Amino acid sequence: MAADTRDSTSSNHSPVPNGKTYDAFNVPATLENKESLPVANTNTYTGKYTEPGIVDALKTIKLQDFKEVHKKPCTREGFLAGIGAAFATGGVRAILGAPIFTACSWAVGAFAFGSFAMHEYCQGNRRREKEGIQKVNAALLEKKVREEMKREEIRKARRKAKEEAQK
Questions:
Q1: Mean pLDDT, residues 46-61
Q2: pLDDT at 20
Q3: pLDDT digits (tens, 9 = 90+) for 72-103
Q4: pTM for this structure?
Q5: Residue 69 in contact with residue 75, Cβ under 8 Å?
Q6: Is the dihedral of CA 68, 69, 75, 80 positive or negative?
Q7: Gyration radius of the chain over CA positions
Q8: What Cα–Cα distance (Å) separates residue 84 from each residue in 72, 78, 109, 145?
């Protein structure tokens, strides 16, 4: 099978009319050739579609993702709030006489809830801040356009006055 791809007699002609073989693979997606487009998770050997699973999802996670988690927006604030909530809730439960395992369970739950709540609160603040910045930018642009129109009217009035003065 590999021998026919290396056969020198078949290299005389190109399967593509203009002679560039990469054009054969650069076919735009149309309704006629939609069946020829590759589908995600299709085995190229058997041509069968496989549903992505947990293992496929885990393969996408890299160690670098965990090393840089603190660089994501609002993550630091969320973790700090979760740690504080866990310490406070677990500590209070332990001081009030709950068994250690129960106090730790409450602490874990408080960490998860506190982290999630603070992260969402921070994301909401960021979203509102972004919308505010967009409104300010739109207002500044509108103001700039109005000032430019005003300047243009003043220029036209000056030109008209100058033309009348010359007559």
A1: 81
A2: 53
A3: 889 999 999 999 999 999 999 999 999 999 99
A4: 0.54
A5: yes
A6: negative
A7: 33
A8: 20, 10, 12, 50
SS (H, E, C) the chain: CHHHHCCHHHHHCCCCCCCCHHHHCCCCCCCCCHHHCCCCCECCCCCCECCCCHHHHHHCCCHHHHHCHHHCCCHHHHHHHHHHHHHHHHHHHHHCCCCHHHHHHHHHHHHHHHHHHHHHHHHHHHHHHHHHHHHHHHHHHHHHHHHHHHHHHHHHHHHHHHHHHHC
**Could you count the other beta carbons within 10 Å of the beta carbon of residue 78?**
21
Distance CA 114, CA 137 (A): 34
Structure tokens at 10: 């078949």
- Tell me the HSE value of 115 on the side-chain side, using a 13 A CA sphere: 14
Please give the backbone phi and psi of residue 150, each rounded to the nearest 5 degrees, phi first. Answer: -65, -45
Residue 68 to residues 58, 72, 75, 83, 111: CA-CA distances in angstroms?
17, 7, 10, 19, 20
